[in-house]
Model the fold of this input.
Amino acid sequence: MNQITLTGMVLSAAPMGEYDRRVVLLTKERGKIAAFARGARKPNSALVGVTSPFTFGTFEVYEGRTSYTLVSASVSNYFEELRMDVEGAYYGFYFLDIANYYGREANDETALLKLLYQTLRALVNPHIPNKLIRYIYELKAVSVNGEGPQVFSCVCCGDKERKKVFSVKRGGLLCENCAGRAKDGKELLPSTLYAMQYIAATPVEKLYTFVVKEEVLKELGEVVGAYMEEYVGRKFKSLEILGTVAE
Done:
C-alpha cells in the first residue's frame, strides 16, 4: 500500500461492521473517493471527529489497488455552526449531495471542491440569504460540470445585441429572431439576467459578495429550479427534507 496525503472534504459517512465507517471524500488530488476508517466508531478513536460530513482538511490514506484506508486527518474547518442550525445543516447536506452527484474518481475536482468550501463558508455568514446561496451554488455547480446555461449570447445564432428571452429547454438565451424556436421563452428581469451572468463568469472566491431584491430572488429561484429539474437527472432526499424545514 502507498500512503498519500489528500486535501478534501467529507461528503458522507456510513457505518460499516461494528466499529468502522465508510466515508466519501471529495479531494483535490484524486477526485471523489470512498475510504474505510477502521475503528472510527469507537469512542476513543482519533478518527471519530474527522469522519463527519462537512469536515475539511488533509487526510492521510493508504491507497490500495481497489480501495483506500483512512489513517489520520488534520482538520482545517469542521463547520461547527451548521451542526447547531437545523436549516443551515440541511442546506449544507443538499450542497454535499450535489457535490457527491457531480464528483468523479480520478478526475480533477479542484473547482468543485473550492466551490463547495466557499459555499459552506457563505452558509455560516448571516448576511447572505440561504436561498440566494442555494441558487448561486446550483447554477455554478452545473456550470463547473459543463452543463450551465448560455447567458451571454443567443444559443442559436450567437447574437449578443438583440433583446432576448431565456429558454430552459434550449439551455439559455434566445434573441428575438430565434425566440420562436422555443415555447418556454421567458423575458427575465434585467437584474436576474445580470445575476446569472455574474454567477457564470465570476471566480468562486468572489461569488458570494452580493444580495438581490426579493423579486429578483424569486425569479432567480424559479429559473434555476426549472433548469436543475431539466438537466440534473436525480431527485435529492436532502432537498425534499430542506423543503420541510426552510422558511
